[in-house]
Write a structure and sequence with these properties.
Keywords: Membrane, Transmembrane, Transmembrane helix. The chain is an all-alpha fold. The protein is built from 8 helices and no strands. The protein folds into 2 domains: 89 residues; 147 residues, no CATH class. Helix 2 packs antiparallel against helix 3 and helix 2 crosses helix 6. The longest helix has 50 residues.
């Protein structure tokens, strides 16, 4: 019979799923799965068409017997299976994610977090929904950064190192101890939720700082254009 903690956990999970963040996260997961399926389907179709074109070309030279048609079908099936197996989603690890290109760092970190989702408590899953949205928002900003700039190094440390390390540190705690306060402090579950919230807030601040730099650069360029062209025009009229 489920205990009160389990009932609360299920209720919290239900509320997370129907929340705006939960629905948005679920939509993003569906979109990623759909995009991945379409990529695989396109590769399979193109490969099968290529095999069929080769078979037709051979048929102009020599008529294909039943064995030839059968071999063509076998080749199409084998190639399709090979493409599906080759196109499986990669098994992301923190080590692989930390060394990836900067513009791929948010998406791959998000994929790794999604793989850890089932092992995390429901409040932490709600934080993951918000984190995923923050990671998606900061991706264009990171893509425009020089990988050697201080901002890029800070983003790589926060997203590629500290965030996965927080989750892995929680996973090392025995499940029986995760809900219990330790040494008079918060439980590991609460520490995880608070840590994810802190990282999410820092990612949002980082995104705002990068966007502020872009806005200042745009304003400077606009001011330069006004001085160069509107100013010249006003002087000419005088």
């Amino acid at each position: 019979m489920p205990g009160s903690d389990d009932i609360i956990e299920h209720a919290a999970d239900f509320l997370r799923r129907i929340s705006p963040e939960g629905r948005a996260a679920a939509r993003r997961r569906r979109e990623r799965r759909k995009a991945a399926f379409m990529r695989i389907a396109k590769r399979v179709v193109l490969a099968c068409l290529a095999i069929l074109a080769v078979a037709i070309a051979i048929g102009f030279v020599m008529p294909l017997q039943a064995e030839g048609v059968f071999l063509t079908m076998i080749a199409m099936a084998l190639v399709s299976v090979a493409i599906i197996l080759w196109s499986r989603a990669p098994d992301f690890t923190p080590e692989k994610v930390a060394s990836t290109d900067l513009h791929l760092l948010p998406s791959q970190t998000g994929e790794w977090l999604e793989q850890q989702r089932p092992a995390l408590p429901s409040p932490a899953q709600r934080q993951l929904d918000q984190l995923t949205a923050s990671l998606d928002a900061i991706t264009p900003q990171l893509a425009a950064l020089d990988a050697r700039s201080p901002e890029a190094l800070e983003a790589r440390r926060l997203i590629g190192d500290e965030l996965p390390e927080l989750v892995r540190g929680y996973q090392k705690v025995p499940p029986s101890l995760r809900r219990q306060p330790l040494n008079g402090g918060p439980s590991p579950d609460k520490q995880l939720v608070e840590g994810l919230g802190t990282i999410g807030e820092e990612i949002a601040r980082m995104n705002a700082r990068l966007a502020d730099n872009d806005l200042k650069a745009l304003a400077t360029q606009n001011r330069f254009l006004e001085i160069k062209y509107k100013g010249d025009g006003e002087m000419g009229e005088q």
